[in-house]
Fold each of these.
Amino acid sequence: MYCFSYYTYDESLIHFFGSTFAYVQAIVAACIGAKFGVNGNPGELPKWYAIVVVLFICIYVAGFAWSWGPLGWLVPSEIFPLEIRSAAQSINVSVNMLFTFIVAQIFLTMLCHLKFGLFLFFAFFVVLMSIFVYYFLPETKGIPIEEMGQVWKTHWFWSRYVTDEDYPKAGGYEMTKGGQGPKNV
């Protein structure tokens, strides 16, 4: 994440690592499916086969760490305006931790029931996330945080939900003393 947020990053690098981990996820599913089948009994499992599967799982984790992993933290920090960023980021952290807990609790149960299909289950969501990001998240590279309101107002989908009242054209907001809330300036 440090690499992507501190330096200007090449998006093709992110797409390369993201697609690599999606392909490797399918390879892991194929390897486990070929050896274990649907009954879960591998028979005799050669050591080299186990090493290959573990190697592909490590590549998958590395690909996730370089592509999708940091985006759950990076994207929300870039898309929310300054007025609500800290509240939005705290909600983001809470939801992220909640779903991490849920996935950690149900992973082994799902693995026992779905077997190699579990990796295909997660691959489906990688494809779904890719489609969502491609169509619904605007490019934020080089856009100051103060201009994010304009980005949302001009987006083909989100412009239906963002009004001029949400982001006034002239001026901005100024915090007032005495708990009176923000005022337009």
Amino acid sequence: MSTPGQPAPAGATEIGTASPAAVGARGDDARVATRERLALLRRSKSFIAGAIIVGFWVVCAIFGELLVPKDPLASDPINDLLAPSADNWFGTDKLGRDVFSRVIVGARDILIVAPLATILATVVGTALGLVTGYFRGVVDDVLSRIIEAFLALPVIIMGLLVAVALGPSRTTLILTIGLLFAPIISRTVRAAVLTERELEYVAAARLRNERTPYILFGEILPNVMGPIIVEFTVRLGYAVFTAAGLSFLGFGIQPPAPDWGLQVSENYGVISGGFWWPVLFPSLAIATLVIGVNLIADGVASAFER
């Protein structure tokens, strides 16, 4: 706030608020930056390749039943463990189910669980990161120690504990992965908030006596969206792998669903007998989806770094 007889600071009014011109300039800068990032993504080969791979599996998840030649849940014990052929492109599993149909339709489960779990982790982690980064002091110390305690334990062990406590289901899988990844995201957000809280626009908001929730979510949050978006895409790849791993261990999607991790779990015992196809093809599906998501994450990270 300026004293009588002195001009107000540039870009501020007499009560310490940002001038309309300054607000408009910030908005224009944000729009220009967004257009530049979108242009970089359109030129990014890794982003385009990842989008094609993930897009393929999204189509399979949505239209799977229309694309497959056989019912993915139909058993045919007489024709179990048939090798890949013209009739069964990926062969059959130990219950005689068509592996190709199960791989295509199985994309649905993991593309429901992984994105929802990552959204949950991002929302919770962002809120924690905003609070710990902005308030510092006792709040930061207490929450940071709790977060570090969670991070000290292996993700898969924590996942097993939560899954055992709540019981295996799709909802449990989403909650488990979301809560496991939230502390990781919160640390990234906290680091970004620590820098933002010292900038002039936050000080101006305090001078205007803005409420703390508005400062956190209306002022700081839009300015740390870059790291949040990058972290979301990175964690999505980990969520795919974690969901498949928990299903493999029997704590995720339950039979007879054609979940990829569950398919590997049900058939890995027949590999020693030379029946590799019921395990190979769902494993390749998991690998390609993770690779596709990671390629997208690389492209997004490069766009926000420039």
